Amino acid sequence: MVAAVVRGGRTVWHGSRTSVEGEMPDDRVQYRIGSITKTFTAVLVLRLRDEGLLDLGDPLEKHLPGTGAGEATIAQLLAHTAGLAAESPAPWWERTPGSLRPELADVLGERPLLHPVGRRHHYSNPGYTLLGALVEKLRGAPWEEVLRQEVLEPLGLDRTSVRPRSPHAGGWAVHPWADVLLAEPAEDLGRMAPAGQLWSTTGDLARFAAFLTHGDDRVLSAESVREMRVPAAPAESADVVDGATYGLGLQVQSQGGRLVVGHSGSLPGFLANLTIAVEDDVAAVVLTNCTSGPLLGSVGADLVRIVAEAEPRFPEPWRPLPQVDEAVLELAGPWYWGTHAFALRLTADGGVSLGPLAGGGRRSRFRANDDGTWTGLEGYYAGELLRAVRRPDGTVSHLDLGSFVFTRQPYDEHAPVPGGVDPEGWRGIG
Questions:
Q1: Residue 19 C-alpha from the chain's centroid
Q2: Least buried of 141, 227, 329, 335, by fewest C-beta within 10 Å?
Q3: Does the keyword Hydrolase apply (predicted)?
Q4: Which letter does DSSP use for residue 150 in this model?
């Protein structure tokens, strides 16, 4: 087993355990990472979206016709809500050569849809095979070539590959009732590769974790990476207690009150886990070469928790804004939605934030638009439009947020409060 901890975008700890005397693996030894491959495939799809070659709401049929699952949208495939089966038809695809499934029809089978499209989260390996085929169709090149050129090389992931490169670990099964080993086959998955083919190292996955935290404009912007981390699928009933759900190519979970994202992976002979606590800017990578046994998700979560609790993140040093728009500065300060007190603040990225002055409640950061409005980035106000409404003389009347009116005073009689304000005004009980 090998593990690494990432903090502030760099590896700060690496450790390993081995049963082979004198061969302690380092951060360049490859292990198979299974379904963490899906996150790489999702990055390629988001790149296509950002270039305007597709929309996440497009049905698959628009770009990849004739699959039999074309009514599902690209976003639904990314979030495992397309209704597809979890696995491809027999034989077990993880332990047999991909040459047995040369076409998409061989991967999907005669009944690709098990559930109504968009109704529930049902994890699907064939769904990511379709996304890999979509990448190939729109790029006109094999999935592995596109991945290398657009993600691996820009991020410097030179030890991540479709096929193993020395030094790499061999995959083993450990007998459940005896301390003996059985070698596992390492098959080329063929069409199923975009769902689980990759080999990687703790060193490379540490860099990938930093990318998934902060973004990299050579691959995906911070905004697009943030979008991947937003829950996009309903939690299954069995997951509700754990607060587990799925974004766009990333698992999202609440663990001990801490929101973590990432992905797990498994193939015969290998287990892998990538856990990221974005708010703490701490991530953990754990890899091992056995089929079952270690609960790597728990190990990764523990590594993140230990670092985040023992060495809390230092706040960023205060710095004044590089520049400020006087018209926006005028909006800063307290506002009232009815009698609820909110505060609007300017943010370092040129946007604003709006949230309750005290306690819990609806809050969001807002991205500045070219026309002087702002778009909500999270929570209840995600995607909602915030604008300052001005009177004919240029003074600010109120804020409009998705039809909600925010005023400088509670139920300001000089603002167009929906339903009007009682002309008798505020009064006591007499």
A1: 35
A2: 329
A3: yes
A4: I
Give the chain's domain count: 2
Structural domain includes residue 12: yes
The answer to whether residues 180 and 142 belong to one domain is yes
User: In a 10 Å sphere around its CB, with 0-12 CB exposed, 13-18 middle and 19+ buried, how is residue 239 labelled?
Assistant: middle
What contacts 241, CB < 8 A, 6 or more positions away?
none
Q: What are phi and psi of 387, to 5 degrees?
A: -145, 150
Checking if the pLDDT of 77 tops 90, the result is yes
Name the residue range of residue 397's domain. 326-406
| 16 class by beta-carbon count within 10 Å (0-12 exposed, 13-18 middle, 19+ buried) | middle
What are the φ/ψ torsions at residue 212 (nearest 5 degrees)? -70, -15
423 belongs to a structural domain: no
Q: Is 318 among the domain residues?
A: no
Has residue 347 been placed in a domain?
yes
pTM score over 0.85 = yes
Alpha helices in 109-201 (DSSP H): 125-139, 143-147, 153-155, 193-196
pLDDT tens digits, 150-179: 999 999 999 999 999 999 999 999 999 999
